[in-house]
Amino acid sequence: LSDSDLRGSDLSGSNLSGSNLSGSNLSGSDLVFHLPSVDPRGYSAHGCCTSGQWLLHAGCHVFTADAAREHWGDPEYPDRERGDDYLEITVPYFEKQVAARMASAG
């Protein structure tokens, strides 16, 4: 899906696990959204609803919000600054977007 134009697409029922969405235009899609990522390695991050579960994709990782906090909050995480950036920026934005999408779905 890299560089795909998915504006206005209905992705309900789609399994996007393992999909490379880099460069894709997802505007208007309500099941996939870009996340702010400050990863110096250039990894992109996005939120995605797969099989009714909202997941945070960052680089090669796929997390629930709780699992993401556990991963990046681990005292042994190798880059504390990067982990804190994910915890302070990416995860809260993900949770806010999921809450808004769930509220609008009724």
UniProtKB/TrEMBL annotation:
Pfam families linked: Pentapeptide (PF00805)
Name of the protein in its database record: Pentapeptide repeat-containing protein
Protein source organism: marine sediment metagenome
Region (Disordered) residue spans: 1-25
Comp. bias intervals (Low complexity): 9-25
